[in-house]
Amino acid sequence: MSKVIRAVNVSKTFKVGAETVTAVDNISFEVERGEIFGIIGLSGAGKSTLVRTLNLLERPTSGQIFINDTDLTRAGIKDLRLARRKIGMIFQHFNLLMQRNIIDNVCFPMEIQKIKRRDALERAYKLLEVVGLSDKAKAYPSQLSGGQKQRVAIARALASNPEIILCDEATSALDPQTTRSVLDLLRKINEELGITIIVITHEMSVVRDICNRVLVLENGAVAENSTVDELFKHPRSQAAKDLLLIRNVDDKRRAI
Amino acid sequence: MNTFLSLVDGYLGNGVTQMLLEGTRDTLIMVFVSTFFGYLLGLPLGVLLAVSDKDGIRPNAVIYRSLDIVTNVFRSIPFLILLILIIPFTKMLVGKSYGTEGTIVPLAIAAVPFIARMVEASLKEVDKGVIEAAQSMGAGDFTIICKVLIAEAKTSLLVGVTVVLGTILGYSAMAGTVGGGGLGDIAIRYGYYRYQLKIMVVTVVILVLLVQIMQFLGMLISRKTDKRRL
């Protein structure tokens, strides 16, 4: 099976004043087509930076990113933009256009691709059905709840027929119940449309609920790369043990 | 209405009402036309400033620093001095350096750097996350400028237009001291040179009313078109 994403020795450093901070430290991993792949770590572990290097929102300081065997770090700006259209992205704070109504938000990526307005609208309405928000087409983002906004963002990400969807802490701003429904939707998209999904999170429960495989990050480097089952049964790294411990505490709190 | 006009005429003197009405019209023409041309140059300049700054979508220190300095220089020149400095240019453009047309040119030029700063500030308020989302969809810079930066900053840009109109109205009255036409001209000629206090007061009252109305309408429009608070 072909690897849809291949990160090879990716590093990213930032200059903060006179100091150089390494956010991503020589990370390599591969993602199979159709997987739901988790990247977990505590805040500051470099996971958001890492996911941003996958569509080159952050250009890696060194290393390569292959999407379907095309090296994005060597692509020109035009090719990069074309490649990005096949990589949808959803964010912690949804990042919807606040001055546009819902249907026009979903149409936005198709507008960028110069798809005819009529075709775009037709597709956008279908996508709103998929995410269960057909009745909100003419509403504005400010009128929706967090969970609804994230559904709109998912519909928007689907608009350009992506092969990959990157989720950057997509459920971190949502309550547990809404989180579950958003995760269910992501799983449905993965199963029915065969879209590969990368999930960035600091919550083990998210990994447990939808991921097949997981990369544990610590201080910008890979602490562990294994299947979810393996990680829960035999966590090898301290980082993984810590994250599992936090989850247990959370679960106990919820139980109380 | 006619009785009202003759009443005012009786109070201020024959033909004064007509003159005030024409002055108001000229002032409005000057303010709106020069604001329009000001935005023609100021909007692109403001966009360039916002885009080329270090947090912009296309950081470019050389472009930003040079535009920054030029904008500051033009903003520092007092309006009256600018008006006199560019008389040759004004004559070349509209054929004369006084009256309504002659004032529009310096007003528009004085407005450009001011507008550019207002636009720059408005665009910088746009959420970085939304810009990033557009980039992740493969949007080019021009698309981001038009459909994200300007569209999302709409409310703030409209507030900016309101502030600019008020400021230009103030400048236009100043232009009256050098034959600029409009209400400022009337206030100077009758009120100041001829000691007709009543006319001066009435003129000032009209100016105040104009600013109030523009401010009210501008804020109303920007609030009504804002989709963030529904």
Would you mind describing this structure in some detail?
The complex is a heterodimer of chains A (256) and B (230). Chain A has 9 helices and 10 strands. With 256 residues, chain A is of the alpha/beta class. In chain A, β9 and β10 (221-227) form a beta hairpin. In chain A, α4 (117-130) crosses α5 (146-158). Chain B has a single domain (2-222), classed as Orthogonal Bundle (MetI-like fold). Helix content of chain B is 82%, strand content 0%. The model of chain B has no long low-confidence stretch (mean pLDDT 92). Classes of the chains: A alpha/beta (256), B mainly alpha (230). Chains A and B meet through α2, β6 and α3 of A and α7 and α8 of B.
General shape of chain A: globular
* Shape, per Cα inertia axes of chain B: elongated
Number of strands of chain A: 10
Reported for the largest beta sheet of chain A, the result is: 6 strands, mixed
- How many alpha or pi helices of chain B? 11
Biggest sheet architecture of chain B: none
Helix content of chain B: over 70%
Order of helices and strands of chain B: HHHHHHHHHHH
| Subunit organisation of the chains | heterodimer
What separation lies between the terminal Cα atoms of chain B? 41 Å
CATH class of chain B: Mainly Alpha
List the helices and strands and how they pair.
The complex is a heterodimer of chains A (256) and B (230).
Chain A: E1 3-16, E2 19-32, E3 36-40, H1 47-54, E4 62-67, E5 70-71, H2 77-84, E6 87-91, H3 102-112, H4 117-130, H5 146-158, E7 164-168, H6 176-193, E8 196-201, H7 204-210, E9 213-218, E10 221-227, H8 228-233, H9 238-255
Parallel strand pairs in A: 3-8, 3-9, 6-7, 7-8
Antiparallel strand pairs in A: 1-2, 1-4, 4-5, 9-10
Helix pairs in contact in A: 3-4, 3-5, 4-5, 5-6
Chain B: H1 2-12, H2 16-52, H3 61-76, H4 79-85, H5 87-94, H6 99-124, H7 128-136, H8 141-152, H9 154-175, H10 182-193, H11 197-224
Helix pairs in contact in B: 2-3, 2-6, 2-9, 2-10, 3-6, 5-6, 6-9, 7-8, 9-10, 9-11, 10-11
